[in-house]
User: Fold this.
Amino acid sequence: MTSPATPTQPSPPLPETTHLRIALAWVIGLTTLRLFANALTGLELYGDEAQYWTWAQTLDLGYFTKPPLIAWIIAATTSVCGDAEACVRASSPLLHAGTALALYGLGRSVADSRVAMWSALIWITLPSIAFSSLIVSTDVPLLFCWALAATGYRRLLDTRAWRWAVVAGLAIGVGMLAKYAMAYAFLGIALHLVVSPRDRWILRDLRGLLVLALALLILSPNLYWNAANHFATVAHLGDNTNLGADPSQKFRISKALQFLGEQAGVFGPIPFAILAWRLIAWIRGRASDTEKFLLAIALPPLAVITFQAFLSRANANWAATAYPTATVLVALWLVGQAPRWMRYATLVPHVVACLAFAVVVAVWPTLRIPLTDRGFSRMAGWEKVAEAARPDILTNPDLPVLMTDRIAMASLLYYMRDQLGVGDLQPGKRPVYVWDWNRQPEHHYELAVPYDPEKTDRALMITEWETPAAILDHFEATEQVRVISITSYGRTRRLEVWLVSGFKGWE
Assistant:
């Protein structure tokens, strides 16, 4: 006689420590892989990265286009391992790892360790994070601070502990030193308090005041720098919005739709679709309180920048702060409501993409994939340009160098860092100045080291201008030394080298 079959028992849930170990294994593993990829790659610094490195050579409380945190971070990493490209970029994979762990903490606060684990896994495997780990940019510390601020704010609301008010305030303040987009956090908090009456106690509590006071205290040195420099960074933000553009390029729905399409690429198609789905659920009154909190923190940057795209233009990364809490929202839905296969349908393509990207970065250009040349070409060629210009610089040791282009200046400062320095801010180095054609600063070098004929009216000029006559006309004597033309992976960089002397005046 056959005995009856024993019913299959569901497998017990994994303990919390296991979820944490899995998250740590993925975060540490991918971070290590990215650090090795950056160390092995042949990709050079592109212009903005080189500019941030030059900022790190003359630390300040602010810079023309950005607050100072990126320069401080680069100064820290390069002081440990040197000025090689991998050291300049070392903070990016490390900070993304920190963001993933902060999102683990947020997921644990709003749900449980399973949601926390999936939050960390989704973030660390996003293709956009794989790309962002390759470069050093202001978005990376911003996202870390955003995730930490959201976690601290949620824990403050739940526990009313003073230490979480300190965490939230410090994270927001330091995030503002990374990028002023951190201010969207206050819009997110305001939206959350509108839809969550039970949390409005913080408006009347000293803990809420502490969050604001700490944030402003940390930001205040940069505000002082701006006040002393005619609010250069704030003015640059206004220029970035491009609201003075031609009317035919404004108020275009197509640009807003294009921007939203780009966001699906930034966050991943499935996570972005889930984000849109849960937003619709909120509008229809079917979102949980937890989902409302996560959406409230995520939506302001996405909504504001989408409107900015409609008004004029917007870069895809400008709404990046929408995605830390959106990641936890996606994990919450995948774990709590979606069929199990959807978790892996979301994660596996991202894992494959980020692993492939790390391998491509590590082996390029030894092993080249044709599709990558176009994207990577802006991160190659400047070292050859610097070597081509080196003989002229060395054979004219008594002349300062006069540059006319921000990217070229930053790149030569980096790839000739043994010889060149930013103006007279780096004693012992050959001073490099920039030609400020209208004597109205439009980037950091024009603010910090514009060409001053009272210091010297002789210089070795290196310019990317195709027709430099507008500059040469200001000098009595001009002599072309050479034309440098370097083609690297389909991109040609052309510079002219001139000896100029006898400055005649600005008019």
The mean pLDDT is 92. The first helix runs from residue 16 to 40.
